[in-house]
């Protein structure tokens, strides 16, 4: 509700000031439920997408590799450096943990 000040019409008559409903006729309290549900849905999907992206960052930072199809191999699984190097060369993305310093030589501690 709002107060409308008095005014003169075009024909010269004066309209006394009065209280009036200044909301539009299309406004309805029934629409507030839809707006709240929509905002909750957006917030929920944002939270879900953020948690999935942080999980993938944690997986890519882990030493075992981010690809789940790769078998886990360590330098202890090989008896010679040549065997480790051959495995590393077969798929460098899968076996990147065999090259600790990133110079392209796998399991340098092995002879």
UniProtKB/TrEMBL annotation:
Occurrences of domain Excalibur calcium-binding (ranges): 73-108
Residue ranges crossing the lipid bilayer per the database entry: 32-49
Keywords: Membrane, Transmembrane, Transmembrane helix
Native organism taxonomy: Bacteria, Pseudomonadati, Bacteroidota, Flavobacteriia, Flavobacteriales
Highest taxon of source: Bacteria
Region of interest: Disordered: 53-73
Coiled coil: none
Ranges of compositional bias, category Low complexity: 53-70
Protein name: Excalibur calcium-binding domain-containing protein
Transmembrane found in the keyword field: yes
Pfam families: Excalibur
